[in-house]
Structure formats: structure tokens, C-alpha cells
Amino acid sequence: MLQDDFLWGGAIAAHQVEGAWDEDGKGPSIADVMTLGSVDKPRQITDGVEAGEYYPTHKAIDFYHTYRDDIALLAQMGFRALRTSIAWTRLFPTGDEAEPLVAGVAYYDDLFACMREHGMEPVVTLSHFEIPLAIARSGGMAVRENARKFERFAEFCIRRWHGVVRYWLTWNEINNQFNTSNDLYGWTNSAVRLSAEADPERAMYQAAHYEFVSAAKVTAIAHEVDPDIMVGCCVAADVIYPLSCHPEDVLLASDALHSTLFFTDVMCRGEYPNYARKLFERRGWELDITAEDLAALRAGTCDYIGLTYYMSNVVDHSHQADISASTSQSSAHMVDNPYLQKSAWGWQIDPSGLRYALKQFDERYGLPQFIVENGIGLVEKPDGAGRIQDSNRVDYLRAHIEAAKEAVETDGVDLMGFLAWGCIDLVSFTTGEMSKRYGFVYVDVDDRGEGSGRRIKKESFDWYRGVIASNGERL
Ligand code: P53
Fold first, then answer.
1. Which residue among 170, 172, 430, 433 has the greatest number of ligand 1 atoms within 8 angstroms of its CB, and so is best to mutate?
2. How do strand 167-171 and strand 121-127 relate by DSSP bridges?
3. Are residues 347 and 328 in contact, defined by beta-carbon separation less than 8 angstroms?
4. How far apart are CA 105 and CA 102, in angstroms?
5. Are 371 and 404 a contacting pair, CB within 8 Å?
6. Fewer C-beta neighbours within 10 Å, C or N terminus of the chain?
7. Distance 8 CA to ligand 1 centre (A)
8. Does the CB atom of residue 436 touch ligand 1 within 6 A?
């Protein structure tokens, strides 16, 4: 049985839904200069907003104007929580103004009030791939002063929405940037083009360090404001298996898991693990990590682990591939799992992997956990009768919720809630497509932003309502 106050709901992110990218004084963010891609065509990052390029976030699903209706619709499923992010540049257009924009503050005031009117707990990410472009231009999070700007922004948010927002997440999927093989992840996590760095890996660790420190400081500030506020870290918990029992595969998988565990180790324990210290030594890196930073890390460990989960991966020590165009693989040793099916975007479907991830975190840290994203991207369009029959989505979510329940009931995992990613169709992060759909609600907008914008409930809508009403018993 799941706890009575289990936080059922969905998750979205500002840049993937709001649109209105330059309205009411909003400044450009790093997401606003990412073009449309596809499964085999990576999104490009342009130097600024260039004429003739198409940028999917500029319109997205126009949530900035439709949020009241959209939230009322999602409320019909009985959502107890809705996760979204605050677009930093809607408040502070270059990330460093002394005062926030009145219109931006009013928008989030009303957005959170609207959630509360519908009985939803807002779960708010402070940075979901939305760093101000101006900050990218001054070195992104590889520059200490820029991380300080994030702290000031975050402190403003936590104070402003005190009493309204109890659950916060600092950096969305902070561990994606561990994949330094292409520019997408360093850009979206840290506003740094890693390929332009002399040593991309070093730059990644330095940026991650400043982010760790800023997250810890923000967590400590939140607790000063109100000890009841809960601030989580957020990691993509894509688990990694060895292809075989060959000892080299097993060791490789154990090392490859550092792509997640390095980040949770620092944020949950408040100190650098031995393997990281050794790595820095071996590479001869003198990272800017001060004694004061280390004290801040210890004083601001996260209250819970916010994990996103989509897939598992497999590594084979004898395999070496070019992954620079892959949106699903983060290591050159990754190969297909012969036992699993993949989504149309190559993401391997593995409900047991979710239980594995939850167990692993619980055994390692013993902290509460919150599944803040899970779901499957599908190609969909209404049938002749105008219905969207998404039984594949129901199958995917059912199996993952079952695995999560097993982790609670058998393994004793302390699970706070389950949020379905993209509960209303939105712009895909990795490809920028609208046609990679995740929602219980269909949005009539195509990859080029054309369409009526009409919202249609899919078949999964009623199913999920039943799941929530029965607290996960009726699957
Ligand atoms: P899309 C993998 C790689 C990159 C981002 O992704 C990811 C993941 C999943 O672990 O993260 C999240 O839209 C992200 C969301 C994103 C969602 O996965 O490419 O937090 O912003 O939309 C799904 O299918």
C-alpha cells in the first residue's frame, strides 16, 4: 500500500510548455536558442535567436496563456501534485537584475494559486534547462559568480512562494552533463558548450561543483525560511547493467553508474566520494573547490531524491561506438539489451529498472524518494472518431507503478509520490519535437508549432484518474 498522502500527479517544465518566450519582458534562455531536431538529427544550439531558424520553445503549447484551463483539465484526474519549473528569465531577464519583473512574478503567483485552488501541491524545479542566455555568454555555471546568481534567484523564489510551495527541486537531472560526448547536456545543465572547452570533462566537473554548492546553499536557506520546506536533488536515474558476467562488464557497469551516483553521493552525503577524489588526482586537475565550499556541501544536503526514470542501459566492455548523435546513450560502451523492447526513440523499456534504481538509492542513502518523471513518448494522432487510443502508455505506466509499489512494499523504500512526465503533450527536450508525445491530454500542435492548440483527453486520462482515486490499487 502506498501512503495516504502519496503525491500523484504529473510533471512539465516551463520552457517545454509556456511559449511566450519574449513576452512581458522575458529574456532569452538557453532553451530558446535550440532548434528542432529528431530522433537521428540532434538539435542545434545557435549563437542567438537567428532569423530563418525554428525554435520550438518560442510557442510550445502556449501554456503561459492557457494554464488556468489546462490545470482545470488535469485536476479532473484528481492530481494531488503538479511539477513545473520557474523560467528564471521570466523573473530576471539576464539572470542578474536587482528586482524581478512584476509580470513574471504575477504569472507564477497565479499559476501556483491556481494549482492550490485545485488541490494540487506545486512541486517546483528551480532550474530545468532554462539558464539565462546572458549567463551562458559569461561562461555559464563553469564560472563561480554565475552560480551565485542562481542562488539569489532561488532565494527570491523560495521566499516569495513561502507558504505556497513546499516541495522544491534544485537542478533538473544534474547528472545528464556526465555525458560530455555532445554539446546538448553541458548546455542544458550548465550553459556551457563543452566541445569548446580545452578539457570538456574537467569543465563539467567544475560546473557541477558550483551547482552542488549552490544547491546546498539554497537548501540551507530554505530550511532557515521554514524547516518544513523540502528541497530535493534531481537526477536521471537511468540504471546501467553489465551485458554479461564477464568481470570486465560487471566492473564497467559499476563505474558507469557513477553517471548518476557521483551526483547523488555529493548531494545526499555532502561530501565527495573517494573515487572522485582519485579521479581528480589522476587527471592532475586542480579544481576550484574551497574548504568553505566543502562546509556548505555538508550543511546543505538534500531532503529527498527527486528521480526521473525512463529506461535502463547495458554496457559491454568490448564495444566502442560513436555516441555523439545519440539521445539515449551516455557511454560509448552501451549496447542493446536483448531482453527489452525499445520506444520509437530507442529508449529501452524496463520497469524492473525503476525498482532497481529505488532500491539502490534507498540502500545507499536511506532518504525519501520522489519519482518526479516517468513516461513514454509515442507518436499519436486522433482516430476517425477523434479519439486517441494510447494503450501503450497505460501499459508502460502500469508496469512502472507496479514496480514502484514493489519497491515500497517489498524493499521498504520511502516513496513520496509519482509524477507522470508530460502529463499534457509538450515539446520534447532531446529532439524539440511535439510529435514525441507523453500526455494524458493531447495538444493539437505539430512539430512546426502549427495546429489549433485544441486539448483532447486521451484514453489514458480516465485510467490515470482511476489509479489516483484508488491510491494505486486499481491499475
Ligand atoms: P524527451 C534523457 C536524456 C535527456 C533528458 O525526454 C532526459 C532524459 C531522461 O532521463 O530528461 C528528461 O522530451 C527531462 C525532460 C524531458 C524528459 O526527460 O527528450 O527532464 O525535460 O522532456 C523526456 O523525450
1. 430
2. parallel
3. yes
4. 5
5. yes
6. N
7. 20
8. yes
CB of residue 310 inside a 6 A radius of ligand 1: yes
- Give the Å distance between the CA of 428 and the centre of ligand 1: 7
pLDDT score of 138: 97
Residue 258 near residue 264 (C-beta atoms within 8 A): no
Q: Is 42 helix (H, G, I), strand (E, B) or coil?
A: coil
C-alpha cell read off for 83: 511539477
pLDDT at 39: 86
The amino acid occupying position 315 is V
Catalytic residue list: 173, 373
Tell me how far apart the alpha carbons of residues 105 and 376 are, in angstroms, rounded to a whole number.
Answer: 33
- Using a 6 Å cutoff on CB, does residue 180 contact ligand 1? no
DSSP structure string for 428-453: -TTT--SSSB--SEEE---TTS-S--
Crossing angle (nearest 10°) for helices 258-269 and 351-365: 40
pTM of model > 0.90: yes
CA 234 to ligand 1: nearest atom: 20
* Per-residue pLDDT at 76: 98
**pLDDT at residue number 325:** 75
Asked if residue 343 has its Cβ within 6 Å of ligand 1, the reply is no
* Ligand 1 pocket residue status of 421, Cβ below 6 Å: yes
Q: Enter the DSSP assignment of 45.
A: B
Residue located via cell numbers 510557442 = 59
Splitting the chain (475 residues) into consecutive groups of 10 residues, what average pLDDT does each group show?
A: 97 98 98 94 94 97 98 98 98 98 98 98 98 98 98 98 98 97 96 96 98 98 98 96 98 97 98 98 98 98 98 96 78 94 94 98 98 98 95 98 98 98 98 97 98 98 98 98
Ligand 1 centre distance from Cα of residue 430 (Å): 6
- Is ligand 1 within 6 A of the CB of residue 173? yes
- The C-alpha cell 517546483 sits at 124
Sign of CA dihedral 448, 329, 179, 402: positive
Confidence at residue 40, expressed as pLDDT on a 0 to 100 scale: 84
Atom index in ligand 1 nearest the CA of residue 184 equals 4
